[in-house]
Design goal:
Strand content: over 45%
Structural class: mainly beta
Number of helices: 4
Largest sheet: 14 strands, antiparallel
Mean pLDDT: 93
Oligomer: single chain
Helix content: under 10%
Distance between the termini: 55 Å
């Protein structure tokens, strides 16, 4: 809806509502479960999203214009796998420690047999009940004076998570527990090469290679995070042929927080978990989040002739990765029990013994012990450095006879210190738990992932296109891109771990 309030003030509003209802069957049906046929989440998924936008523009005078907008969106979703109301693992299969008494702890446990399709629970992130609002406030001003066009403004973004979802990056299995079976437990050391028959043999014998479970301590959890930014830019018409644009952007990424306190982090020196905002532990976990993140941007365009234009640009962007994602759930909000074979040959346990009981942690004074079989994500105030992305381009645009316009450009980026999950407790090949650094120090035998910047990711490309506009809106074009990307495999989007966990071999 548009509303012209006065000759100088106009307003705009929009509201939308989307309801969804999906049904995704599993390969083996409700009897044996397995992976969903269409990928994604198995079973029934229902929910809706709402969105509201309010915007306005005020013309102070012909040379000064102010615009602002407010945005709100909320996702509410409920996704549940089949047989969630049954305790299949504990009651039907007789496996202790699998199902709990709460609604999100029912259903099948997962059976992961190497080189076979998964049986039982389809994944480690269902069920989930989400209620996630987002807010955004934006204000800008545009001022034209002489040959200069100044634009400046601010952007504040808030994201809230209110969820019931037993999920953890690095967990072996989900809330109903699970068991993994590999070839090593039924192989001969130094004997013939193993196959999928060895894995199936381990399953038949109940010789587990991995087992585990996620225990969500509260029935639900919350998280809130805000991002702040301000920018200023000047577009200068230096001459009839030359246009120069330059500016600066400031951004601040504070630590996320929970409803009643901060998040959590692991202390690598003491093997303790710090519950931020409890006792003497500071609410920001002692993290110094820089308020000096100013980054430059600039570009120019030069008209060589009426049919030839040259352009070039350079800019830096702060890595926008939100720490709310890796720190959303962590010990002691959630306990991720991972157990694995000590050496790849001896079983982790017997299937009939089920999964060990997971004790409920006590927050105490905010400094609490953490079991060596519990997986953790954390940040380290001594090592955390938010990365940045450099981007630059050089382009030439030429108009040819017959209305054809061609353009060729060199486009490149360098992602420096892109954030990733760095497991500081990874073992060496063939070394088992004894080769893990924190096992040697504290007897800690599980993944301990630090969120930190890893390496430089390079992208270089030649991008070319040829366009021709015809009458009545018809346009014909052809485009070609030749590019090369180099980086640490496994962390292409800044939300993963190196494919090879040993730091000495990241570059392979």
């Amino acid at each position: 809806m548009n509303y012209n309030i006065s000759p100088k003030l106009t307003a705009f509003g929009r509201y939308s509502y989307l309801h969804f209802n999906t049904q995704n069957r599993q390969f083996f049906g409700p009897e044996l479960g397995g992976a969903p046929i269409a990928g994604g989440q198995a079973g029934l998924g229902i929910g809706h999203s709402t969105s509201l936008t309010l915007a306005g523009t005020y013309v102070v005078n012909p040379n000064f214009v102010i615009d602002a907008n407010f945005g709100y969106t909320r996702l509410q979703a409920d996704s549940r796998q089949p047989r969630l109301d049954e305790q299949v693992g504990r009651t039907f299969l007789g496996l202790p420690g699998t199902n709990g008494s709460r609604w999100f702890e029912g259903g099948w446990p997962q059976f992961n047999i190497a080189n076979f399709t998964v049986l039982g629970a389809p994944n480690g992130f269902q069920p989930n009940l989400l209620n996630d609002p987002q807010y955004q406030w934006v204000a800008n001003a545009n001022w034209t004076k002489g040959r200069h066009n100044f634009r400046f403004g601010t952007d504040i973004y808030e994201q809230q998570l209110n969820q019931t979802q037993p999920e953890f990056f690095g967990a072996f299995f989900g809330a109903s527990g699970g068991f993994g079976f590999a070839a090593g437990e039924t192989s001969l050391r130094g004997g013939p090469r193993t196959s999928e028959y060895n894995s199936f043999g381990s399953f038949l014998l109940g010789a587990t290679d991995t087992l585990g479970k996620i225990q969500l301590i509260p029935d639900s959890f919350s998280l809130k995070t805000r991002l702040y930014s301000f920018y200023a830019r000047d577009q200068w018409q230096a001459s009839r042929k030359l246009t120069i644009s330059y500016g600066v952007r400031w951004e601040y990424f504070p630590m996320p927080s929970r409803a009643d306190r901060g998040v959590e982090r692991y202390d690598f020196n003491t093997n303790k978990m710090l519950v931020c905002g409890v006792g003497q532990v500071p609410a920001d976990c002692g993290m110094n989040m820089s308020k000096k993140r100013f980054v430059p941007r600039g570009g120019l365009a030069y008209r060589v002739s009426e049919t030839l234009v040259l352009r070039a640009g350079y800019g830096i962007t702060n890595d926008p990765y939100n720490l709310a994602r890796p720190l959303r759930v962590n010990y002691p909000i959630l306990v991720t029990l991972n157990m694995n074979s000590p050496n790849g040959f001896a079983p982790a346990s017997r299937l009939a013994d089920g999964i060990p009981l997971i004790p409920t942690p006590d927050l105490g004074n905010g400094v609490i012990p953490v079991d060596g079989n519990v997986a953790i994500n954390t940040v380290d105030p001594n090592n955390f450095r938010r990365g940045y992305i450099q981007s630059w381009n050089v382009a030439m645009q030429k108009q040819f006879r017959g209305g054809w316009v061609g353009e060729a450009a060199y486009v490149a980026t360098r992602s420096v210190g892109q954030l990733a999950y760095y497991d500081r407790n990874v073992g060496r090949v063939g070394g088992g738990n004894a080769s893990r650094p924190l096992f040697q120090k504290f007897g800690r035998g599980q993944r301990t992932a630090e969120i930190t910047g890893l390496g430089t990711y390079k992208y270089d490309s030649l991008q070319a296109k040829l366009d021709r506009r015809f009458n009545r809106g018809l346009q014909v074009g052809v485009a070609y891109t030749f590019s090369k990307s180099m980086g640490i495999a496994g962390n292409e989007d800044g939300d993963g771990s190196p494919a090879i966990g040993i730091p000495e071999f990241y570059a392979l």
